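Sharing a chain and its predicted structure for anyone who wants a worked example. Both blocks are below, sequence first, tokens second.
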Amino acid sequence: MSKIHANDIELDYEDYGAGKVLLLLHGLGSTKKDWDAQVPFFSKTHRVIALDLRGHGDSTKPKDAYGVGLMTEDVKAFLDQLQIMKATFVGFSMGGAVAFQMAASYPEYVENLVIVNSGPDFNDMGSIGEELLRSRTEFLETKGLAPLAKEISFNMFPEAHQLDLREAFETRCRNNDYNAYYKSFVTLMAWGLGDQLKAIPTRTLVVGSDMDYTQVSFKQEYVSRMQNASLVIIKNSRHGVVIDQPEAFNLALEKFLNDE
């Protein structure tokens, strides 16, 4: 692990391989460990960088400074420190929001965009988003982070053969700083690209799961509004597709990268 001072915080990251850069951005309440099944696969052909976003893992946990916009500025400053001019951004869930914002705000940095079980408007998801914000906020305030970590992990990895995945993810989530998790969550749910989505010119792959929290039709709808996007659906997978179906995900991403 290494640390870089960027945008007034310390960002912890891992850096493997050589070649074109893949920047891997994890989900809410998790860490760069989300990508353990991708790093060894893609570092054979690419320079693969996985970092802990602000408030997560071993990166700085500010008291109040959170939000997708700040995380995007962190990533830009991080790349500048490493003198990386372009990368393929691969963002899972919350990491997908950061990747989307990077493509909207700083398209010159984004060679390709890969969005994994995420969306462009967390603040405009209708009843699903409203219920998620209400229920998770109430759960956090009344029961705490450890029970929430257990519930989230079970929902993502409910099968008997997924017990090790479930326990590993639960541990990552449970180890969050409560304030950092809470503020990352509420600021994420207030974020959205709106009309900026249709202006993104970047070649984009959206990867969805057939059993994700949001339906396939949700991804199809926003992909249809993008200039240069395609959609791949991974079967027999839930929200954490990079973890529960790593082989299928890796092959889909490899094909996308090879088709450039």
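Comments welcome. The chain is about 40% helix and 20% strand.
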